[in-house]
Write a structure and sequence with these properties.
The protein is mainly α. The protein has one domain. It has 21 helices and no strands. The radius of gyration is 22 Å and the shape is globular. It starts with a helix and ends with a helix.
């Protein structure tokens, strides 16, 4: 009966968001209250579960998401992303232009949130397609595959970062594992898969073209790369150094502090404020306005994350997590595969990768102690599942369709299949890595 209640409540959540068009946060809140009542939580205890779920989920996450949004917005506004892509295209040349765009998408996708990154790189894709007289989808798909992978797999993006917190995983290790798994996923879904749709015709709309910044207004190459990739470098370096220092001491304490994701993002934003802001002629007021706009962009993301935290807390407080764990132990499906399947089903039903990842985490997190799997790999397995088969209920599907001016059929053939390849390759990568870590 308990599992039936959970199933019906998740179906209700899916229907409210997809069919009823209810705001995801409101849907989470309503469904969580109903779920709590049906699972036997006393009425006067439900508000406490709601507040604890929000607090525990957002407590360590708000700083990372907000500062990440600020950094991404500044990277875009300053022209740093444009500089990185220009340099890489010069290095790779026309013959390997897809690989240049793929690498560009991966680099700028790390600090940029998906929607910002998508809108930013579309003009670049179109300009390259016109310059080299190549099909726009063939040129652009590898770059968008990279952007999708960073969104689903790598912190400090909202869903992976939230999952790291819920599973108490090490963010640096998750990032390292994520990069290793992302490489084959991007290659297969990008340059390899795009060869099968090279003849697919697209007529990008002129209204979507955006004028790039003049060359003399762009930041330098070193400045652009350092400011964009500093969070990644700091997380990886501090993680490696901490493994090399087994004994406690002042230096290890300092490294632990500097390796905290919130501190990493704060240091990066402070440096970028000067390197991409003040040094590029922007006033402090202009930079702060950019940061304010960035926070507005992620406000709803934070609410959705907190809503998923409420549902997770309801599962914990009702004691249902233990019952689910007991039931799942009788299944022959490995936990990493099961988590991927749950995330993939919710993704197909809801369309949002972030909601799919966070909802799955709410189901899996309470029983992590009994599953005996590496928490970083669980983060990546759910992240991979949350990217499965984007279709008509996903905003990314329509962004791709409208920007490239494609038919629905061609969008399924290109975008939806690309996302599916990324998702399945990610699962296989997680399972292979599970054999060694």
């Amino acid at each position: 009966m308990t599992l039936l209640i959970i199933f019906l409540c998740i179906v209700a959540l899916i229907l409210l968001i997809s069919w009823g068009k209810v705001n995801a946060f409101l849907a989470f809140l309503v469904v969580s209250i109903v779920t709590g009542l049906l699972l036997g939580i006393p009425l006067n205890n439900i508000p406490a579960s709601i507040y604890k779920g929000i607090g525990d989920t957002l407590g360590s996450l708000v700083v990372v998401i907000v500062l990440g949004a600020m950094l991404g917005k500044l990277v875009a506004e300053s022209g740093a992303a444009q500089r990185i892509s220009t340099v890489l295209m010069k290095l790779f040349g026309a013959k390997y232009i897809q690989w240049a765009l793929m690498l560009t998408g991966f680099i700028i996708g790390i600090p940029l949130f998906y929607n910002v990154g998508f809108v930013l790189i579309i003009p670049l894709i179109f300009s390259v397609a016109y310059q080299y007289k190549l099909p726009a989808v063939y040129v652009g798909l590898p770059m968008l595959a990279s952007l999708s992978v960073t969104h689903g797999f790598l912190p400090p993006h909202p869903s992976p970062a939230a999952l790291v917190g819920q599973f108490h995983a090490n963010m640096g290790l998750t990032l390292i594992y994520g990069v290793i798994i992302a490489i084959p996923a991007v290659i297969l879904a990008g340059p390899v898969f795009s060869k099968t749709i090279r003849k697919l015709e697209a007529k990008p709309l002129a209204s979507f073209s955006v004028e790039p910044l003049p060359e003399h207004l762009l930041p330098g190459v070193f400045n652009s790369l350092l400011s964009s990739l500093l969070p990644v470098m700091m997380l990886i370096v501090t993680t490696i150094l901490l493994f090399m220092l087994p004994e406690e001491g002042v230096f290890k304490t300092l490294l632990t502090f500097l390796g905290e994701p919130g501190i990493v993002m704060l240091i990066t934003v402070i440096i970028a404020t000067f390197s991409l802001g003040i040094n590029m002629g922007k006033t402090m007021q202009q930079i702060m306005n950019i940061y304010t706009d960035a926070v507005k962009d992620v406000a709803m993301v934070l609410l959705i994350v907190s809503g998923a935290g409420i549902l997770k807390q309801i599962f914990i407080d009702s004691g249902v997590s233990t019952q689910i764990a007991t039931a799942l132990q009788s299944w022959s499906i490995p936990p990493l595969v099961l988590a991927w399947i749950i995330a993939a089903v919710i993704r197909v039903a809801l369309g949002s990768a972030t909601v799919a990842g966070l909802t799955t985490a709410g189901i899996i997190a309470p029983m992590m102690g009994q599953l005996h799997v590496n928490p970083s790999l669980m983060v990546l397995s759910i992240g991979a599942g949350s990217l499965f088969f984007s279709h008509v209920n996903d905003a990314g599907f329509w962004l791709f369709k409208e920007y490239f001016n494609l038919s629905l059929n061609d969008t399924f053939r290109s975008w939806s299949l690309m996302e599916t390849i990324v998702s399945i390759t990610g699962l296989f990568g997680v399972l292979i890595m599970h054999l060694f870590v």
